[in-house]
Specification:
The chain has 141 residues and is mainly α. It has one domain. The protein has 6 helices and 2 strands, in the order H-H-E-H-H-H-E-H. Helix 1 runs antiparallel to helix 2, helix 1 packs across helix 4 and helix 4 packs antiparallel against helix 5. The longest helix has 30 residues. It starts with a helix and ends with a helix.
């Protein structure tokens, strides 16, 4: 079921939002100082292409320790990101969510867009894991 959902998602709009994530990532890499943001864009862009069966979570939740992206510098990075690109990506996901929600069959896709809209506001310090890895990390504490 996850594979079918991902294929339908990709064909009906996931490719557009994933490419937008990657476009912002390329712009960030070109600026040199934006490389941390670019890395997050590529990770979350891939997630935006195929979101079913995966979750975006804080790296500190998975690895149980703070790193540069999950600490104070990550917070500052997310504030900068919010104003530079986060608002625009979030708006794109919100518009896509409304378009999907109009049809009954598009409601699961709309919910995925809403999750991605929230993530796009503050992506620094996040990573994407499969739902199996996430359940394993929760039970291994």
């Amino acid at each position: 079921m996850r594979t079918i959902g991902n294929i339908i998602w990709f064909l009906l709009g996931g490719v557009v939002m994933g490419l937008l994530w990657w476009m912002f990532g390329l712009i960030a890499f070109i600026s040199i100082i934006g490389i941390p943001w670019g890395k997050a864009c590529f990770v979350l862009g891939r997630f935006s292409f195929f979101p079913f069966g995966y979750e975006a979570v804080s790296r500190s939740e998975i690895f149980r320790e703070q790193d540069i992206g999950t600490g104070p510098l990550g917070f500052i990075g997310n504030v900068i990101w919010f104003f530079v690109a986060g608002i625009w990506l979030s708006l794109g996901h919100l518009i896509s969510a409304v378009a999907c929600f109009v049809t009954i069959i598009g409601i699961p896709f709309s919910l995925q867009h809403l999750k991605l809209a929230v993530i796009s506001l503050a992506p620094i310090g996040k990573t994407v894991v499969s739902k199996q890895e996430m359940s394993w990390a929760k039970y291994s504490r």
